[in-house]
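Q: Predict the assembly, please.
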Amino acid sequence: MSEPEAPVPSPASVMRTHLTDGQWHHLHPVTPLLRGGIFMVAVIGFLIANLRERLIELFTGEDHYSGDPIDAIYQSGATGWALLIIAGVLLVLIVVFYLSWRMHTFRVSGEVVEVRSGLVFRSNRKARLDRVQGVNLSRPLIARLFGAARLDITVAGQDGNVKLDYLGSKLADGLRRDILHLASGARHVELPDDGRLAAYENASTGSFEAEPGAGATTSIARDSAEAPNAEAPNAVAPPLMGPAPGTPTTEHSALVGFATSRFKDLRAPELDPDFAPPESVVRIPPGRLVGSILLSGFTVFLLLAALGLTISVIAGSSGWVLVAVLPGLIGSVGYYFSRITKSLRFSIAGTPDGVRVGFGLLSTSSQTLPPGRIHAISVSQPILWRRCGWWQITINTAGQAASGSSPLAAILPVGTLADVAKVLQLVLPGFDTDDHRRLIENGLLGGLKKNAGIADFFSNAPVRAKWLRPFSWWRTGWAVSGPVALIRRGVLSRDLILVPLARMQGVRISQGPLQRHLSLASADLHTVTGAVTASLSVLDVDEALVLFEWMATGAVRSARADTTHHWSQIETPAPGVVQ
Amino acid sequence: MKDHPEATTEPAEGIDTAKTTEPVKRLDLVDAGQWKRVSPKYVVVEIVGTIVNAVVICGGAALLWLLLDQTWAMWVGIVVLVFSLINLVLEPRRVRAIGYQLRRDDLLFRRGILFQRFVAVPYGRMQLIDMNRGPVARWLGLADLKFVTAAATAAVSIPGLAETDAESLRDQLVELAESRRAGL
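A: Predicted assembly structure:
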């Protein structure tokens, strides 16, 4: 394909892959197959449905399949035509698939990632790397078998994703690291020793263990003095996408190598064990995960439904209700199964380029959230979990608004208080002094009533709020600590909401007639749309005014001090970044 | 590093003076500056809107009642009529209660009498500014300005500005946002 555009010069740094050189690249060759997978399944399903009798006959050896399409064709003597048509259709399909693969190209340069696709309707999508909200690497089951992965680069806005599906698994890993590295604004270079790079190249032939844990050293060193050294190994790049054997091998050993590499890939831990410091890694024991999913509102609903059903069957005698409801019950088993397989092998870890969340047993997914991309955090405990002491952490990010129910909304599906502390430390770096820890604990467990004697760090709703919130008034309160606003609320489901002021979009206080009568008001901290809403339903009028001023000034001040859009550039902020 | 709000001095001062006079019940920014009001002509837009609404609903209800003999429709119509009349009486006050301020770093907006609300949006959070003109507003030479942020709920909409005001305010806001640009 002729490329009219001149390649955008990439920063003089050594990347893990050759993909960030500003040139156009193709996706993994099996892409059309994986993308057209559903279509294929539909076609095969159609064929099977039509030729069912013939298939049965194949095994039983009896001959009563007259009347199916093949028979009809055979009878009318149009076999040749039929074969010709089938061949033609296949040819067209292959050509179309090939062309669409050929035309689907992407490039990554220092500032942007760009994707071009489409045969008839060309589309071209470009995203600025410093606006990246997250990088999601997912491996659906089928793609995993082929050693392919999907890279999703999330930017804010409706449908604002740049999708690279599919890439070779290792390549996708490397590209993710590179993109994050470029986005971090770290313009200096890490000089990989040759052994490591060689190991990376070999990695495409199979052995997972050979994959270097180099990421931990990526991008943190901000020493620009290293830059001159960097030019040299630029020419070295891993060979091809996908599991192409790097060394000449016999056919047989290549096949075996492919199979073992696939098998290892399937068994490999989602998170590169060397990549993140182990003390920052949170994992969930499968038992707890299953328990948490069973102890949900859905189970209660199911039990109530079952109870109602039993009663109605006993009382009403007719069994048709059972028949009507049974499919739903079977469906709910499927629901549990998918929830559990999706959340198994969950891990969250801090990496130099942000928080990495990975999950999934069969289809895996792992998302990296660069620092400063989290707009609101909610730590909550449904009442059913209280006895077990489990908590859940949900977040708002700008990218997830597009995809609706993003799987990532729950950054910690279930965890103990210790896990919560760890995760909060990851998502709110610098928020981990003893004072902060006490504040968080207070927000999770405390309340006005409970610690009457102990100092409560929260500004609570007054007693008269009882009229509007008879049960939860004593837990309703707020606090500001440095760059973070905290809201405590809820009794049945205990919630603590943390909003980084640098990400807050606005603040609102309001008062209705009832609240006016009681000298109360309510407050909302506006964040990007998501699962978390930071609102406080009752607080004292004067408190509301204080809160308003605090949030308004705090938001401006924090936003001005915020440099996370190029998060590794802390020491030398580029001119015009902060202003 | 915890900053308890009560321990602060600066924002709390205005509140303390208010406390000494009366137990405040109304939500009001005591130490806020001068509010800019929207054009008084905006009352007409609201009144026309209310009347059109009332006529449509009451007309529909009357048809249901007279032609199809549905008595409940009559009650619906009466209720809507009464509320519309109350609305019409309150409209001028309600429009007077709309106000905005351009503070140093954020846009402040207030609205409502019975249901009051105050919104502060930092300029740097601006994503775009919308200018809308309905038919009645255009006839009166008015325009609405909408300040949109990344949060769906935090859009501040200032209705009923004279067109020239709206345009200059829009340019001013864009300029302010540009000079205080922040990330998302």
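Residues 37-101 of chain A form one domain. Chain A has a mean pLDDT of 74.
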